[in-house]
Amino acid sequence: MKFGKRLREEVEETIPEWKSEFISYKQLKKQLNQNDPDLWETYVCCKRPRFATLDCLGVGGSGFIRLFEGEIEKVNAFFVNKEEDYIIRLKELQEMVAKLDDDDDEEVLEVQKNILDFHAEMVLLLHYSLLNLTEIHEDREEAQEEAYEGSPSHTFHA
Fold first, then answer.
1. Distance (Å, whole) CA 31 – CA 47
2. Measuring CA to CA, which residue among 18, 34, 26, 29 is closest to residue 74?
3. Is 85 left (phi over 0), alpha (psi -120 to 50) or beta?
4. 28, 2 contact by CB (below 8 A)
5. Which residues contact 147 (CB under 8 A, 6 or more apart)?
6. CB distance 79 to 133 below 8 Å
């Protein structure tokens, strides 16, 4: 199964409500497939093109790089907002625990449920981060392969 399809399925199964907050692998791949001419020109700035970084690729400001940077900003903003929400929520949970009446079983169960829900949300954010990291890695590899294959000196040897 192709990476993009596997990724879409993973997002749909785990966090469909955050779908729009993920890196748009499809858009990035589409941009790469347009054979952006700036991509190779900036790629050759590296002494070892096969090990180029996105910083090296970004020197010329190709469409792919601009799109990629925008997607990274989107993911980072979402993560920071969630992180801030979770800090507030953690303080609220700590206050609930501090005020907890151990003799009230119903109240104890409610606090435990809230803590478990909070933990589950944090695990989802971790999963979100890992999926996006996987996308970044895949996009970087594809950019390097595209630039290498598009180079004037590149020839395929079977």
1. 25
2. 18
3. alpha
4. no
5. 39, 40, 43, 49, 52, 57
6. no
Measured CA distances, 4 to 7, 27, 34, 138 (Å): 5, 11, 17, 10
**pLDDT digits (tens), the chain, 158 positions:** 577 777 778 888 888 888 888 888 788 778 777 755 555 555 445 544 444 555 554 444 467 778 888 989 999 999 999 999 999 999 999 999 999 988 899 999 999 999 999 999 999 999 888 888 887 777 667 666 666 665 555 444 44
59-86 burial: b if 16+ Cβ within 10 Å, else e: ebebebbebbeebeebbeebeeebeeee
Cβ neighbours for 132, distance < 8 A, ≥ 6 positions apart:
22, 23, 75
Tokens standing for residue 40: 């190779």
Would you tell me how many other CB atoms lie within 10 Å of the CB of residue 158?
2
> If phi over 0 gives left and psi between -120 and 50 gives alpha, with beta otherwise, what is residue 120?
alpha
